[in-house]
Amino acid sequence: MSVKHSLLALLERGPAYGYQLRAAFESATGNTWPLNIGQVYTTLNRLERDELVEALPENDSGQRPYRITEAGRRQVAGWFASPVQAADRPRDELTIKLALAVTTPGVDVADVVQRQRSATLRLLQEFTRLKAAEDEAELAWRLVLESMIFRAEAEIRWLDHTEAVVARAGLPKSPVFEFGGDAPADAEPGLNEILEEKR
Amino acid sequence: MTVLHLRGVGRVHGTGDNAVHALVDADLTIAAGELVAIMGPSGSGKSTLLNLAGGLDAPTSGEVLVEGTVLASLNKKRLAALRRRSVGYVFQDYNLIPSLTAAENASLPLELDGTSAGKARRTALAALEEVGLDVKQADRFPDELSGGQAQRVAIARALIGERRLVLADEPTGALDSTTGEEVLKLLRRRCDAGAAGLLVTHDARHAGWADRVVFLRDGRIVDSSAPLADAETLLEGAQ
């Protein structure tokens, strides 16, 4: 997430000091991504250094508001004008986990899928409850909630799909690493047994 | 207070080698105020469970209790009376009677139960108003209503009178997503007001409205979503 661009976007509303920016950010996103105040000030300092914002004189209560500069405006416009790249998003652990689950000997893929489905559905229930409770909520916060609802829904659909595909096609034979000489003897307990205990 | 209780319920079709186990040893309790969703692939036993819960089908093993009464202990006539008075159904295709108006459809369970026509109509109009149907639509026939309006009438009918158990089988079927969500909100509100609801759905978004989600696979309950976490920890997990 770009704190830099978020703060610049907020400053488009008018000059503000650190605490105000943090509060505005959290109110727009429903406290979903808490910002610590240190992070806000560090970012403001960097923005000032890069001449994207300028510090105004301290007011009577000792607060120092910042104002966006023309260069800052161009940054914000550029940010809104460009799509988020896939590379800017973190790697998806669930996808990796399932890709490995279907090729790791001893893993019950259906069980992995079901555990995830239950957990994601529970999140979805929570988001729905929040949404139902906040019919009058700010538009920005409602959009954030709905984005999460859509994501959870997509994840569950993908899990259903994965389960169906695995059930139909069966699991591939797990590939084995090749060794030049003799393979090392396998004396460790199998994953099978450990997983069985966890169930 | 427990409204619906399934105790070790099973349903087998056919015998011997041809036996199909549609539902196996299902245990489920739904309290007043609770909405429970059932999810699972097609053929997993969702509709069987719903039909057993509403007394539309009888289990081959175990017991179904509605408000403390074992359904199998009732004769046909009393079972029909219980279904009429305690259980409401909402189906995918609304199941409204085409030759009756919205108000007449909604008041049908009351009239079948011997309530006077005048009182039945007044109750039906109140029920229709509660589900958000415009009073002008009360005297229209089902084919003059939109899908969303027809489903509202079906829900009003399912909840009219003192009925405490609502069974809904894919109630948002052919509705667009916004109207579908309205229907779910309505069910949710009725459960918050004290009804017990059982909702069969394949749609995770709809199951999101439930307090609990039960997963069925090959006739067995394989999992159910645990009690809800508190909202504080929730958003951290979403980052």
UniProtKB/TrEMBL annotation, chain A:
Residues 91-165 form the Transcription regulator PadR C-terminal domain. Residues 7-76 form the Transcription regulator PadR N-terminal domain. This is PadR family transcriptional regulator. The lineage of its organism: Bacteria, Bacillati, Actinomycetota, Actinomycetes, Glycomycetales.
From TrEMBL, chain B:
Keywords: ATP-binding, Nucleotide-binding, Transport. One of its GO terms (cellular component) is membrane protein complex. PROSITE patterns: ABC_TRANSPORTER_1, ABC_TRANSPORTER_2. InterPro entries: AAA+_ATPase, ABC_transporter-like_ATP-bd, ABC_transporter-like_CS, ABC_transpr_LolD-like, MacB-like_ATP-bd, P-loop_NTPase. Residues 4-238 form the ABC transporter domain. One of its GO terms (molecular function) is ATP binding. PANTHER family: IMPORT ATP-BINDING PROTEIN, TRANSPORTER, PUTATIVE-RELATED. This is ABC transporter ATP-binding protein. It comes from Glycomyces paridis.
